[in-house]
Every structure is written in structure tokens, then in C-alpha cells.
Amino acid sequence: xxxxxxxxxxxxxxxxxPLAAPLVDPMTKADLVENVTARIxxxxxxxxxxxxxxxxxxxxxxxxxxxxxEQKNIEVRGFGTFKxxxxxxxxxxxxxxxxxxxxxxxxVPVFKPSKELRAMVAGIEAHLLDDDDMDD
Length: 136
Known about the structure:
The chain is built from 4 helices and 5 strands. Helix 2 packs across helix 3. The strands form 2 sheets. The protein has a 3-stranded antiparallel sheet. A two-stranded antiparallel sheet has the order 3-4. 41% of the residues lie in helices and 20% in strands. By secondary structure, the protein is of the alpha+beta class.
């Protein structure tokens, strides 16, 4: 039989909740291709193969990546905006030694959802959202 301290350690391990467990399984690129192919088949008939649809999805994502690499913003009406935001130089700590380390300024990609997308995700009408909810 284990001692009291071993029992407590075991209990503590079981009480820890996962840090950020997703509510549902994430949609992969393959899932996205499957979904887009099915939607096209419903509206235009089976005119595009999964392979061709995968090429379109890849091309779309590559175009977004290239535009962001060139420091361009991408605006998709009704969906949102992909932007490059400049992070300022800041001081951080080395987790191993605790010594201060300077993290240099750098560009980072960000996504700002449109008012319509935020409303759809929230399950409410767009006019009920405050415009101040997602300020830069």
C-alpha cells in the first residue's frame, strides 16, 4: 500500500485540468478541402476534384502568406483582415537562469475578424455588437 504522500501526489495529478483544451476538434487543411469540395459539388455539380480543390486552397493560403511577408494587409469583406503588427522591443527573462534578456522588435501577423464574423460566432446579429469590442 502506498503512503499518504503518494496518495496526495496521485490525487493532485488527477485534479490538474488541461491548460487550454479545445471545445471541439480543430479543422485541418484536409477537412477544409473536403468541406469546400462538398460545397462546390452542391452548388455547381461535381465539377472539381479534391486534388484541384486542394491546389486552390494551397494557392489561397500561399497568396496570404506572400502578402504578409511583403508587409501588406489583406482585407476580406465579411470575414476579416490579416495584418502585420510591429511588436516593440521588450525585456523578458531567461526561464532557466532568470537573467533579463532583450527581445528585439519584430513584425508579427495578426487577424482581426469582421463585425459580421464576430456576430456569427457569438450567435447574435451584427448590429448588436459594439464597434469598440475589437479596437487595435
